[in-house]
Amino acid sequence: MGIDPGRLKRRVTIMRYKDEPGELGNTVSRLAPHKTVYAEIRPVRGREYLEYYKDSNSLEYKITMRYRSDLLPSDVLEYKGRQFLINSIINVEEQCYIQEVMCTERIQEKKPEVDDGRF
Hints:
Blueprint: E1 10-21, E2 27-51, E3 54-66, E4 76-79, E5 82-91, E6 98-107
Antiparallel strand pairs: 1-2, 1-4, 2-3, 3-6, 4-5, 5-6
């Protein structure tokens, strides 16, 4: 049992939604850093699909980290400005030592507009 510490070489920030007062006195949920951990990020698969007449890409990742009992499915993992939405949290072999987090990163490319100079 154990994990090679050299595998966990990426610093991933766990972002959590926190309620803050807004400008008009209402409550606004914003992402705020909760904790920074070391993890391994591996792509699992990618998909291209048509969503509301736009081409979209969806990449799925498996992020392996040491076990954290406070990680929630509503949290967002961030690595170098990229955000990963949590799909599921797997406690490997139910030993509370390591966990695999299945995440989705959504990439949307904006296609350049055609400029013909008439307008």
